[in-house]
Design brief:
The complex is a heterodimer of chains A (about 110) and B (about 325).
Chain A: H1 2-27, H2 31-54, H3 60-102
Helix pairs in contact in A: 1-2, 2-3
Chain B: H1 3-26, H2 30-50, H3 54-83, H4 99-121, H5 130-136, H6 145-153, H7 155-173, H8 196-203, H9 205-218, H10 226-242, H11 254-277, H12 288-312
Helix pairs in contact in B: 1-2, 2-3, 3-10, 6-7, 7-11, 7-12, 8-10, 9-10, 10-12, 11-12
Classes of the chains: A mainly alpha (about 110), B mainly alpha (about 325).
């Protein structure tokens, strides 16, 4: 009974994080802030979901698998976020340089867009 | 899940599949269409899981959503580099094909769906070949009925599939320019030594290797097999190359080509040996299990190498 209640509270909170993260991806203006929203959903949201599901795990093996899923998703999301951020940052720098060369102030507003 | 909650889940899943499919077709931006196609593949894999077809679910997730998605993303990236000159900011807008072409493809796709639906609805109520497979499972050399069908009962199909995969790679390589022939396949990789990518490329491969080999090994008695395991191994190899920890092979490398043809060649060799003993591609029950494992191992290597090279593509045109 207590385990079920904990599962509902934790997975519910986890889904809130996913909802907020999705809203962030759609609403935030540039790549870096969108990444911020995405990784919050991935790390904390998935973590809460896994923690909630852990209370329903029938044995230690399932518990281990759940933990592994979270750990691998954390590593993958963290790495991808770094790579996307670096790529966005570099292309932002390049487009800023290009607009400085062309003396076109309008183009610098594109900075940061993927 | 039972009763009403299972029905609700399935209805939502079916709606999500249809929605993702519809968006993949109708969305105007090419990259967006690819994203919806991948999402569609993931939902379809979950649907196969709900139907209890774990082998198909694994294949759909690995090949349908994963590998095809990566290939399509690569294609979109190359397309936008080829079709739009630098500075043109309409790069993502898909140019609409003429109305005639759109109508023709709609009619063709609609007729195929119609015929498939009609064939499904007019199927006689029978268990198909399930009983025949179950009766002969003991002599097939595999405890997983899917593997028994793929390698033993319907070995023809799998042999030809592996040849088709090879033909796809030959077709892709023939797009390379003559002067690029002999260079390393694909775009130049530029991971910083000691960077995040290099660390990731060291951290993940042990898990990937374990999972890939396990999927092949388990395939003889549980869901899994050469295609699923091969896809995971291809991803591991790609990751190591992208992290700059291993050089990308040259397209003229003899060793590489030996790996590419090993699977179809071993399969064909065992098939011909079977022909000498009576049936082409027939596996004698006493040796069936080791023969299936040999074929699966060789096929896995070839599939992994072929899929990875398909993703890498032809050499970077800018020297």
């Amino acid at each position: 009974m207590l385990a079920d209640a904990l599962t509902i509270v934790l997975t519910g909170t986890g889904m809130l994080f996913f909802f907020a993260g999705t809203a962030g991806i759609i609403r935030f203006p540039d790549t870096l802030s969108r990444l911020h929203a995405l990784t919050k959903a991935d790390n904390v949201g998935l973590g809460l979901l896994i923690l909630g599901l852990a209370f329903q795990a029938p044995d230690l093996l399932t518990l281990g698998k759940l933990a592994l899923v979270w750990a691998l998703a954390l590593v993958a999301a963290g790495t991808t976020a770094q790579l996307v951020a670096r790529s966005a940052w570099q292309s932002g720098e390049q487009s800023a340089e290009r607009s400085a060369d062309a003396h076109d102030p309008a183009e610098s507003t594109l900075r940061g867009d993927p | 899940m039972t009763g009403i909650s299972a029905l609700g889940f399935d209805l939502i899943l079916a709606a999500l599949i249809l929605g993702a499919g519809l968006f993949a077709i109708t969305v105007r931006d090419l990259f967006g269409a690819v994203v919806f196609f991948i999402v569609y593949g993931v939902f379809v894999a979950i649907a196969w899981l709900r139907l209890g077809a774990i082998d198909v679910a694994l294949t759909e997730a690995a090949l349908g959503a994963g590998l095809t998605g990566v290939l399509l993303i690569g294609a979109v990236a190359r397309l936008s580099r080829v079709t739009t000159p630098a500075g043109n900011n309409t790069s993502d807008e898909m140019r609409r094909p003429p109305a005639g072409a759109r109508l023709a493809s709609m009619v063709v796709a609609g007729s195929i769906s119609g015929v498939l639906g009609w064939a499904f609805l007019s199927l006689p109520d029978s268990t198909g070949l399930r009983d025949a497979v179950a009766d002969n499972l003991a002599v097939s050399g595999s405890a997983n009925p899917v593997t028994a069908v793929l390698i033993n009962f319907r070995g023809w199909d799998t042999l030809l599939e592996s040849v088709v995969l090879l033909a796809a790679l030959v077709g892709l390589w023939s797009l390379a320019r003559d002067r690029d022939w002999g260079r390393r396949a694909g775009l130049r990789q530029h991971a910083r030594p000691g960077g995040v990518m290099a660390t990731f490329g060291r951290l993940l491969p042990p898990f990937g290797l374990l999972l890939g080999v396990y999927l092949v090994w388990a395939g003889s008695s549980y869901p899994g097999g050469a295609f699923q395991g091969g896809t995971v191994l291809a991803a591991v190899w790609l990751l190591i190359m992208m992290a700059g920890l291993m050089p990308v092979p040259r397209m003229v490398s003899v060793g590489l080509r030996a790996v590419l043809v090993a699977g179809p060649l071993v399969f064909l060799g065992i098939g011909i040996a079977g022909a000498m003993a009576g049936t082409f591609l027939g596996l004698p029950p006493t040796y069936a299990k080791p023969l299936i494992l040999t074929i699966e191992a060789a096929l896995t290597l070839s599939i992994a190498a072929t899929l990875a090279l398909l993703v890498l593509g032809t050499p970077d045109p800018s020297p």
